[in-house]
Amino acid sequence: MSGPEQILDRALALGEQELDHLEARDVDQASRTAEERFTIMEQVLGIKADPDQKHLMDKLMRLKQLQGRLTAEACKLHAALKEDLARVQMENRRMTGYAGSRPQRPTSVYVNKHG
User: Fold this and answer.
1) Could you tell me which of 55, 53, 41 has the C-alpha nearest to residue 11?
2) pLDDT tens digit string along 9-56?
3) Cα within 13 Å of Cα(6), Cβ side
4) All structural domains of the chain with their residue ranges
5) Residue 58 contacts by C-beta under 8 Å, 6 or more apart in sequence?
6) How is 29-96 classified by DSSP, letter by letter?
């Protein structure tokens, strides 16, 4: 297997790992994997390969499709997090409303004998 093929295979494997992490909502690990994949993709851009190599073009097309899947999964995760945040904010407002309706405790529990 040639150098460009190994680099593309590694980028594909990292992309699949990143997709798995996104599906599991492990954003931190997905971010680390994405950074590693980005470094490898910079190497891919520096490859001087013959455009007639069909197998390299196929791998690049698979990378393109994988990027589309990653983007779609990231959008789903973003929407889910946005809904969770809105729900938590609404719950917080509801709880704050209850805080104003509870009876106030006296500042001192002792009886003032001096009047």
Assistant:
1) 41
2) 999 999 999 999 999 999 999 999 999 999 998 887 777 767 678 888
3) 3
4) 3-98
5) none
6) HHHHHHHHHHHHHHHHHT----TT-HHHHHHHHHHHHHHHHHHHHHHHHHHHHHHHHHHHHHHHHHHH
SS3 13: helix
Cα-flanking dihedrals φ and ψ of residue 109, to 5°?
Answer: -90, -5
User: Residue 32 is encoded by which pair of tokens?
Assistant: 């680390």
20: number of CA atoms within 13 Å, CB side? Answer: 7
Which residue, among 34, 25, 37, has the nearest Cα to 78 in the 3D structure? 25
Structure tokens at 51: 């455009």
Interval 80-97: pLDDT, tens: 999 999 999 999 988 887
